[in-house]
Amino acid sequence: MPARAVTLYRQEQTQHQSSKHVVHHSRKSSSQVVKKKQVQATEAMAEPAYTVPAFRERAPEGMQEYQRVAAHFGRDLVQLQQELHRMKVATQEQVKNIEITREVKGMMPLRKDIPAEVPKAPDFLVSLRSHTVWEKTPVKLFCTVSGQPNPIVKWYRNNVAIEPLSAPGKYKIENKYGVHGLIISRCAVTDSGVYSVVATNPHGKATSKATVCVRRPQGGGELSHLPGLVPLLSGIRPSKLEVTLLDSFGVTFGTEGEFVSLVANMVVVPDLPNLPPEAMWYRDDTLLMPSRWAEMSIGGGVAKLTLPHLNKDDEGLYTFRVWTKDGTTEHSAYLFVKDATPTVAGAPGAPMDVTASDVNADYVLVSWKPPNTTHEAPITGYFVDRRKSGSKDWVQCNDSPVKVCKLPVHGLTEGASYHFRVRAVNKDGISLPSRMSSGVTAAEVESDVEVIKIEGKYDIAIRQEDLQGVYVTIPGPPTNVHATEINKTYIVLSWTPPSPRGRAPVWYLIEKCVGDSHIWQRVNTAVQLRSPRYPVYDMEDKKSYRFRIITINKYGSSEPSEPTAPIQKVDPYGIVLNIGVPSAPGQVIASRNTKTSAFVQWDAPKHANNLMGYYVDASVIGSKTWFPCNHRPYKHTRFVVHGLVPGDTYVFRVQAVNAYGLSEESQESAPLFIDAALSTPSAPYGISLLNCNGSSMTLAWKRPKHTGGSKIKSYYLDKREAESVEWKEVNPSPVVHRIFTVENLTGGVFYEFKVQAVNLAGVGLPSEPSKAFACEAWTMAEPGPAYDISFWEVRDSSILVQWRAPVYTGEGPITGYFVDMAKKGSSDFVTVNAEPVGHCYLRVTGLETGASYVFRVRAVNAKGVGKASDVSDPICAKALPGTKEIVCGVDQETGDIFLNFEACEASETSKFNWSKSYKEITESSRVSITSSGRHSKLTFVNPEKEDLGIYSVAVTDTDGVSSSYSVNEEELKKMLDLSYNIKHPIIPLKTELNYEILEKGHVRFWVQALKLSSSVNYRFVVNDKAITSAEGCKISHDVSTGIIQMTVEHFTKASEGTYTIQIHDGKAKSQSSLVLVGDAFKVALKEAEFQRKEHIRKQGPHFSEYLSFHVTDDCTVMLVCKLANVKKETTFTWFKEDEEITVDVPPNPMSGSCSLPIPMFSRKDQGIYKAVLGDDRGKDTSVYDISGKVFEDIINAIASIAGSSASELVLQCTPEGIRLQCYMTYYTEEMKTSWFHKESKISSSEKMRIGGTSEMAWMQICEPTDKEKGHYTIEIHDGTKSHSRTFDLSGQAYTDAYAEFQRLKAAAFAEKNRGRVLGGLPDVVTIMEKKSLSLTCTVWGDPSPEVTWFKNEQEIVSDDRYKITFEGGKFSSLTIKSVYVEDSGKYSINVRNKYGGEFVEITVSVYKQGEEIPEPKLGQMSKPVATPKPATPAPQPVKTPTPPTPTPSIKSPTPTPPPSVKSPTPTPAPKSPTPPRSMRSPTPPRSMRSPTPTKK
């Protein structure tokens, strides 16, 4: 066997120190020796990278077996292989004996067999045994189980089924001769747990359990933290519990204000509920205790630390330590806490680690750590807030921001407890407050009382003055006066109180002087100091001061203390030692750690100046944006940066931090590509046989799951006969591909194979031996198995399955493939495609998100379906986080059509493999491919129809990052159009050339482009003549809006023609034209002339708004106009039809508006209205024609207001019939009003009369009958909507109304036919004595009335002196033949019939001859007084369903309701609403109104 050497990692471990790893590897003489020194970070923050175990070394030729690095494991393996060989030989002998026995039984006479086996439930003859093993060593679990039939055995870890395929090479399950075994190779700590084996048959189930505890040797393995971070044990505490940590918390990221839980799982033996293991949690080197900021729990195999409200104070390395029998076991990981979003954009992050120290009676020193600033403005200072315990009110301690990260706070209340918090300030705003400090109590620290303990039981308090034997009243001066804090803002003075000081309380006065002047000035005039600390602020720059202290109590004051040396404020950025920010850290070196982290180390700054720690920043190459890697100062000069994106390249910088702020940034590190540190690859697996011709075998295998951070360069194969333990090398030269034909084999022999992979770091672990393959020639007609099944474009519901064609094709070419699918753990395969596919890929859709599937492929030829491929590895149908798809676009600069892909992850060795129709594109004249970092672009050289198809890209050395894109004909055409526009650029125009008329009649021609540069060129061309900017024509442009314009001031008939603008902007150009000829030009010219006239008009008084109308709430129509440019002398006149209108209130032009009210608007108000405005500057007229459409609009506006104000319909009875009335603000017959009975429209007729007044609309039903019953509706239309009111005239309402109508009708008939005096009687008669008097009148009545005459209320009987006549029932007279003075008095006539009558009075005055004649009252007619018929009852109001309203006036038959009408039905007057007759008796009114007097 030729000599060969394999990579060897030798690791020598001591208790606290491990040596560096030295790597040597070679493969024959052609292998290269790689020596590379690596910086390895092995702290707790590092995510667990893949660790390559030690493996065998190829020995010189002649050795039959190699040795493992771990000697005991190697010996065990050799013994096991020898034992297996002996078992195989013994088994073959047993098989031969069984065959001989069967032959003998067959020759014996047949007889009835009695069953030798009885059905039996599973039973463990040998149960599992618990094991405790060292890390990186194997463990073997064996058991023996019996049962009939043979039980099925299943292995579990922590109640989870063990699947050997899920971790190839990790688990090996055996079943030989009734002994079941589980072999776990190279155990890790995470393999600890409870293992169980379950045996099942139809008659029952049996279970056996055992615990496996994997321990790490002290000092062995990788350290889990950086040196100096995890606290050391203070002592050893023995424990009776065996504790093994399992899955534990990893690197965690949080944000201020959120909560996070750190969980550690463990196996505790024995697991006692009442006796949990003793555990501790640390942050950095601080032991954590339960508090409001940290909650701890342990039990049930789980330890949890919950941080309910994260702050940056919580950032750090968290260590969980638990006591075990042999000491402790622990786990550490880093917690990162980033700043919460500030309330003001740009404000800094919150400070952290606020502490209060140097506590005195009224003084405390508050200090904190500054936040990191990357993109925020520098911090200009801090505000410190305090609050008393038990209060929620925060009080700001400093009026102006302090620039140093500490502030002396004085003026506290002695005995009170305080909490403090800090806020950072920059130019953009104030940060969120920090976490508040722990509570401190303001109390006196130093005292002159000494406490002496006697025998540990009694305390004796003795004052200093008692010890010295002196009673002190006036205290002594303080001593040791000095400055403990000096900076640019303030200094803090400290001193030692006098001793003895006396029993009276003391306070202090501070005095200062400038330099050596000896002129002392008091400092704290308004503050009574009780603490030996005081901050002094009012010190001038560049001046030194001396200070002294005086002690005071109620008895007096002490002598001044010794003055201090000169003290001067110090510039923190000066050169004074330990004052100011640190210098910048030194060289920064970054190296790989894992796929998402990097190890950064740096040199400490030359001037530390009380260093607090460091901030590390990172930036992606090309982004120019820095982000913080840690948010709390880190104390050491090495740090692991987590949360980086695989495949990106970063640079790092560091800043030192102290109380004065952040130092200058260090120099940037060299760029670092983020990927895992290099190691040898893991073992290949899945060796399968693809073809055999009797002397050679073609094998294929799967690549290692872990490549070790570099590309797999080659493979080595070994072989052995199945009955041998000796492995022989197959290929002295490395194999590049994962398929190889092994030659020179012996036919009929079974062979086993194993494979090793090689990368830059060396040769990796060998694979598990393959199954024993028989070297027998394949002669079947069907194809052999496909191989190398891979998965790409894994999404939440679909997967692209690819494979390679079978090597053995059978007796004909392969015509297609079937793909079978099953869920992980299931053997029920389902064929995905109903018809064979002719290519070696298939997209499987409709998958369950998050479910795992396995696949196999079967090839098809003319003879049938061939052998199925090996089952693939399980694949989960879930897209990788951050998965992106291929994007098709057009380059905006070159116009090239491209497909662009950004990988969500990539390694330094990753390559982008582009394919068309899933055939890799190697060299092509049709496309070009460029890749950089995580980006790759495929550009089409000259895209045509032959470029249509499916394009895909796969990223090597990743977890299957890939995508595809289908380029169809429609999209290609769209992209070609875009490409043409870019290659032949045209300035896109937002608006074509257009024009607008400006005031003064100027015309503006303008065009707007989507975008213009400052170097744009353009010109206007009118009628083929270029126009330049000159007088009368102004040309300009605005880059920000993209507008180019030309303004023509004199637009005349000569301006007719074609206007064109030509634009050039870089390579792009555009042109737009506007044709202004014919009618289009006439319209523009007319508008320009109008605007020119308008401009002239507006030079004098003019209407800014011409006449218009609006209707007020009371339906008054107002003609309004607005005026401009008026003065006191300006006049305003209204006209209608050229006749001046005189208004009650003269218009006032200075008010800016005038109005003309038109009340009670109707058709008579139609006409042409004109408003004339003028003064010495000119005149303007506004004309408004109220007719046609305008008149209709006004009526509609009135109807809208009136309709909205309309009351409900009111029922009113009249002698003629029943009337429905609707009251409203204003009514005119021009309004579109409709009445409806039920659903039929009512037209005005003798039966149904429609009318109205200015206050209401009515509809009267004359002589109503039952046909008129029903719903009545009035609709008032205002042009847009109708306003309707309804009344139900049926039922009781109709009955009451009809009765009232009958009553009123009868009353009217009686009034019409009653007896009455029509005329002929005077009011006063004057007559001389002895003359004849004749009183004659005309009377009427139907039937003919009765007439009675009275004198002084006594009836006159006709005789010789008084003669009464009544002729023809029409004329009645009273004649007195000769009158005397005694005949003077009041005469009256009573005319009546059955319907009633009248009573008329006449005054008769008789005078003697020779007396003065009394002056008569001429021209007056007597006033009849109606006497109603006694039998006629008084009229009653009509009963309606609505409540009554106030009684209307008797003078109007249609009473008007008051403004606040509550009922639509008014109560009728006591008398009939029939209007009174205009003709009554001429007799003047009499005082007598009684009925006819009784006869004598």
Tell how many strands the DSSP assignment holds. Answer: 103
Low-confidence stretches: 1-74, 109-116, 219-230, 232-236, 572-577, 1418-1423, 1428-1496
Q: Which structural class do the helices and strands define?
A: mainly beta
Largest sheet: 6 strands, mixed
Distance between the termini: 177 Å
Report the total helices.
6
* Inertia-based shape: elongated
**Mean of the pLDDT scores?**
81
Radius of gyration: 59 Å
Strand portion: 35-45%
User: Helicity, in percent?
Assistant: under 10%
In quaternary terms, these chains amount to single chain
Please describe the topology of this protein.
Layout: H1 71-107, E1 120-126, E2 131-134, E3 139-148, E4 152-157, E5 160-161, E6 171-176, E7 179-184, E8 193-201, E9 204-215, E10 242-248, E11 252-255, E12 260-269, E13 279-283, E14 286-287, E15 295-299, E16 302-307, E17 316-324, E18 327-338, E19 352-357, E20 363-369, E21 381-388, E22 395-396, E23 406-410, E24 417-426, E25 429-430, E26 440-441, E27 449-454, E28 458-463, H2 464-468, E29 479-486, E30 491-496, E31 507-514, E32 521-522, E33 533-536, E34 544-553, E35 556-557, E36 567-568, E37 588-594, E38 597-602, E39 613-620, E40 626-628, E41 638-641, E42 649-658, E43 661-662, E44 672-673, E45 685-692, E46 697-702, E47 714-721, E48 728-729, E49 739-742, E50 750-759, E51 762-766, E52 773-774, E53 787-792, E54 799-804, E55 814-823, E56 830-831, E57 841-844, E58 852-861, E59 864-868, E60 875-876, E61 887-890, E62 897-902, E63 912-916, E64 919-920, E65 927-932, E66 935-940, E67 949-955, E68 962-967, H3 969-983, E69 989-997, E70 1003-1009, E71 1017-1022, E72 1025-1027, E73 1033-1038, E74 1043-1048, E75 1057-1065, E76 1068-1076, H4 1079-1097, ...
Parallel strand pairs: 2-9, 11-18, 93-100, 102-103
Antiparallel strand pairs: 1-3, 3-7, 4-5, 4-8, 6-7, 8-9, 10-12, 12-16, 13-14, 13-17, 15-16, 17-18, 19-20, 20-23, 21-22, 21-24, 24-25, 24-26, 27-28, 29-30, 30-33, 31-32, 31-34, 34-35, 34-36, 37-38, 38-41, 39-40, 39-42, 42-43, 42-44, 45-46, 46-49, 47-48, 47-50, 50-51, 50-52, 53-54, 54-57, 55-56, ...
